[in-house]
Specification:
Blueprint: E1 5-9, H1 13-24, E2 28-33, E3 44-47, H2 49-57, H3 61-67, E4 73-78, E5 84-89, H4 91-98, E6 103-106, H5 107-119, E7 124-128, E8 130-136, E9 142-148, E10 153-158, E11 160-163, E12 182-194, E13 207-211, E14 216-222, E15 227-235, E16 245-247, H6 249-255, H7 261-267, E17 273-280, E18 287-288, E19 291-293, H8 308-325, H9 330-359, H10 363-383, H11 386-389
Parallel strand pairs: 1-2, 1-11, 2-7, 4-13, 11-19
Antiparallel strand pairs: 3-6, 4-5, 8-9, 9-10, 12-15, 12-17, 13-14, 14-15, 16-17, 18-19
Helix pairs in contact: 1-5, 1-8, 2-8, 8-9
Length: 395
Amino acid sequence: MSGLTIAIVGAGIGGLTAALSFARQGHSVTLIERRTGFSEVGAGLQLSPNASRILARLGLSPALRRVATMPDRVVVRGLSSGKRIGEIALGAYMQQRYGGPYWVIHRADLQTILLDAVRSEPSIRIITGRKVEEVRDGLDRAELIWTSSNGSREGMTADVVIGADGVWSKVRRAIGDKALPTFHGYVAWRSTFDRKIAPPELAGNETGLWLGTKGHVVHYPIFSGHLINVVAIVKTDEPVEGWAAPGRAEDLLAYYSAATPALRELLKKPQEWLRWSLFRHPIKRLSQGRIALMGDAAHPVLPFLAQGAALAIEDAATLSALLARNPQNVVQALSDYQEHRFERVTRIQAEGRRNGRIYHSGSLVALGRDKIMQMIGPESMSNRYDWIYGFRTPE
């Protein structure tokens, strides 16, 4: 049988990884992207071994090593006290235990590497500036309809349609899930700044995690260690619009007025803050007929476990492996994909919510949390997530 025709809606991290995976298996891929270009305003993201191993198999390790950073550890501190609570082993320990690095990287750098690889594949066509309006399943083919910037309607048919179009997915409606995501009550503030101006005690090759009842802050070096990425979580009743709403530094500093001096000094460094709202949406289905979902379109996860990008990469690898196993029966392959992924992503969604509660717990619970963290030590803190980091793609 000749290769399949596959349409992917959304050219983010998951969509690009999927396109590359399918093309390497001999399929013909069309990527449909709503944006007219690929400039990326996002900040850093974390690529744990369950994702980095997949990217390595796609031949991307040399490019990633040039721009990614591999922190030695996570240092956990009390947000107000500055007290060192515990550590989580990363670096060489993760590499040895799981067979892949724990990288942190600027989203734009990862997207550029993936996009360069995708553009080198002659069997991938990229269409930008198109807004998908309708997806319909069919007995022999699925159909997409989109509008271009001038309002004209176009479309195509494909053996498989994949929705990688984010938390507000249009494709998700095509498999019967019309519920809207729910605001989780938190807004994330993100920024980057030159590592040279970071407080010296916070400028090492490590991830900083500061826990408090009102929120938490994460920071780590990216861009080959030249920049520091910082994300601060703020509890609020109202979401902000979009993924890059401007935020005023004085508002964030007022919110974290009780933070320890070193952390407040770090939060003063960025010149610009951008904000996005955290939404949750319980997974219902990942596929129906010839249509499948991946990444945030299928299962948005809160960032309290740093698994959003990793899960999208896992989805891409799993789906491509199962289609390679059974290309003659696409519907069955997509059904197998749902069966393989449903329990895992449901568990990770739940673990992310649980982590948020632990991070922001009150004084009594926090006291117990801190004691446990100190008792079990850095390596055991990592080992708790063997079930995440040890993921293997089905053969």
